[in-house]
Amino acid sequence: MLVSYNWLQDYVDLDGITPEDLANKITNAGIEVEHLNYPGEGLKGIVVGKVESCTQHPEAEKLNLCQVNLGSETVQIVCGAPNVAAGQKVPVATVGARIAGNVKIKRAKLRGEVSNGMICSLDELGFDHNYVPKEYADGIYVFDDEVPVGTDALPFLNLDDALLELDILVNSAHCMNMIGVAYEVSAILDRPIHLTKPQVEEADQRASENIQVVIADPKKVPYYGARLLTGINVKPSPRWMQLRLIAAGVRPINNVVDISNYVMLEYGQPLHTFDYDQFGSKRVLVRNAGENEEITTLDGQLRKLTNEDLLITNGEKGVAVAGVMGGENTEVSAATKNVLLEAAVFDSISIRRTAAKLQLRSDASSRYEKGIDRNRVVSAADRAAELLAKFADATVLRGVVDAGERTVPDRAITMPWQKINQVLGAELTLEEITGTLKRLHFSVETEGCAMHVSVPARRFDVTIPEDLVEEVGRVYGYNHIKATLPEGTSAHAALTPYQKARRRVEVLMEGTGLSQVYTYSLTTKESAASYAVRNQEAAPTQVIWPMSEEHAALRQSMIPQLINVVHYHLNRQMPNVKFYEIGKVFLPVAGEARPAEEEHLAGIITGQRNERTWEGEANAVDFFSVKGIVETLFDALGVSSQVSYRPSNRSGMHPGQTADILRNGDVIGYVGALHPGVEKDNDLNKTFVFEVALDALIRHGEPGITYQGLPRFPSTTRDIALVVKRKTAASDLDRVIRKNGAPLLHSLRLFDVYEGPHVADDEKSLAFSLVYQDPERTLTDDEVNAVHEKIIKACADEFGAELRG
Amino acid sequence: MLKEKLLELRQQALSTIDSADELKALQEAHVRFLGKKGPITEILKGMGKLSKEERPVVGQLANEVRQLITARIEEKRADLEARQLEMKLESEKIDVTLPGRKTAPGSHHLLASIIREVEDLFIGLGFSIEEGPEVEQDYYNFEALNLPKDHPARDMQDSFYITDDILMRTHTSPVQARTLEKHKGVGPVKVICPGKVYRRDNDDATHSHQFMQIEGLYVDHKVRLSDLKGILTVFAKHMFGADREIRLRPSFFPFTEPSVEMDISCFRCGGHGCNVCKGTGWIEILGAGMVHPNVLRMSGFDPGEYTGFAFGMGPERIAMLKYGIEDIRHFYTDDIRFLKQFYRA
Ligand SMILES: [Zn+2]
Q: Is position A123 annotated in a ligand binding site?
């Protein structure tokens, strides 16, 4: 909503309040003034001139030589505007003046003729061309005759104004009109508001003889009022009205259209004017449209309606889509003589739906959507009638013909007045509270602790006691409320075990050199379906109206997005990168629209494990360096003993370098190399990834810590090298050794793997270091030997393992 | 005779010792002159042949010579060892200005750092951290927050719907409604709810279809707007510096009444006006308000008994303001050159 500072002074005395002050005060009271513009800013030396004579330039057909009276002198100005003529009063940029765009006007010679200035178009004075009336669109602006020659032209163009652009939110719709803003400013400044009642001189002839109004569904149309105006003379509206419309961002068209727009801006009441002679009946019937009923709207479009849309009809056919747009068949034209003026109230939800469906959001529909003052409808019709009589020579037929409720009572809210202090944490006196409400023109009565407030209908946003708390708070000023700290129960707070464990995961990942990233949850349908930890049978969850194919479905894994991040870095000559992400993946649930959400940890690593330094070579990342990261994580979380790995064949992954990660037998993740085909498709180097379901890992936090005393007796270390078939998994040997070594085997470590000439082609040698220990005593060689032999025998039995010589 | 021989031996030995330039030569000299088969031992052995008068004289001289040689050898050994150590140290000299062997830790994402800082502050103030689903029911995302269907502040166009009733949450406020519901009408409820949210926006320098929010909620007996002001003052000073001041401006959110915007005094110019605060001296940081009675009622709290405040902020906005980051997309492009800069954040 654009508010003209000058126009506002019609209602509230702004003496001593600069536009800046006003903007700040309005903002601080709750409606943000987004911009404060001075439309005349930078203009200088523009005066009213009178074209005394206008003759064709001897050397140029399209130029005119004008003798222009500037009051103090008469100068020659060369003017190329097609609409310039002798006798006009015009805005003149004198020599030395500045016009829009900070252009300086100099004395010039055009084809040999001196030009002492420039006669200006509205565009040249900074007006937005979109709002310039058609009659001045291609030429200079021409004043009416009342403007005195030789004076500063800016005030007569309203270029001495300031425009405040208000950001109207849902609760401030009452300020979508000048009167509403005036009430607000009156309350903020604590100055009186001056409103004048429209004066309508009505003819003897009754409107009801020529029109009748019927509402089919009073729930959707609480009120419909009509006035009839005859003998109209369609012509441009007066300059002051045109300028106010332009300031508000409305293009002047003709007096009839302008007046209905002007009254909407002033009263907030959308009005519609029909050409009565084209109406086709003496009856307005407001009803729901039929299914597929058609109407051609003012913009020439054929609209197909449904039975949810409200239609204004002449009893038979549609003449306007209620509250949204008029019909072409009854449009006011230059030839219009008699006008049917509509001032009505329509259900906001119905208008909202229709406007959205037809994609026709207009100034009128948005006011209906957000709410209008139920008690200002008839006054708005009267105001329009007053202006039409004055500026369009209209005769106003007697009476408003209407159906529905003309007015509604004020809303009564009763509350203990102290509640305002209790909620705000303030110490206002009863007088301060009632005084503030009275500034808002609410009436207040008190009765002991209770306060009865009656809220006028124009403040449709104020319905409950909390709304009154806000009204008092914002007008009184939140800056006057002291900051306190809560006095209530003190609550204990801490991270949950899961949140704590998750933070440790972050620290660990970063400690191993991975940087944290956030990628998008929404991705392409193809990406969304790939790399899930557990195979997903259903298709990924999709959004109904994606903004683009790129963000159409919910990811089931973070790997595809991490691949994109690595690809991005490779394209920018950064081949060695390591990233991790913690975030939700979305797993479809059969028969449910909502997917299950699981928090996962995923990582991606490519290039060199360490940078090449002055000391020597860098090492390329391999499977085991990435698996080591995962193992470090499990160690740190204390779950390693529950975790196992097994070879895995997954789509998109290298079939020989990928392991499933299992916890207590359930697959909770995987680690491995990307499939070479994927690397090729994405221009990647050798790249390793992992993804682990954090929920499954740390949902209940980390395992507790059980302290064990330090060993008091020495341990015995024995190494063995076992030759086994190559296909034997090291983890299986590990398991058998541990099982047979218990309880004396204290720790076990694989320290060498050998394949080569010293063993058979299908064999390998695995060397383990075994530490035996008893917490209660020193073990004898015999005791250790017994266990050691048992282990070797078990390995021989299970895997055919032989001791390497 | 022997006397002369001893004196000659002394001379020989001392010159051998003095000329020794390594420990090995010194050791050889020791064996040669002082060994069991050395000349001094020989002389001492042959003492019996001497007269009674000569014996003590030669004996004394022989001892003196031996002591002198021993002392000179020790002296020389110390000297050689010191020289050897010096050479060793010299040979071990390295260029200490060469770079060390670093382990390069990864960086914490700036948004995660900001969220963690806010979480830690509010945990200290007695708030727990609650999280909720990102795919949400229309009920929790809108209706339970006083945004019934057809509410003008609600626009289907702004949300990613999955079905008519399921959508990507557009704010973290549904966690408020869920948390209140869980408490079954009994306060206090004191939570911080961080998380990802989604809006149907085209990604550009200032818009992102996915972003973060942190929501706070405090419901108890007698919670006041002045308490909100107090808590937000603590927050502003913690996040933006001890000299920050705050102001509350009235605003509108469907789920709070009254609703406010919180501005902080500009941390760049201190309030005089600069390009960060667009000349106003104030920077808009977050939205807040007193929980709307409808929200309390719908989630099972009696608004006659309980009041509360809620606030919501955008970690991206805080990060962009704090560090002058010009494009919100940086947070999701994840360029390592961007991420690494906030290693210490
Ligand atoms: Zn500043």
A: no
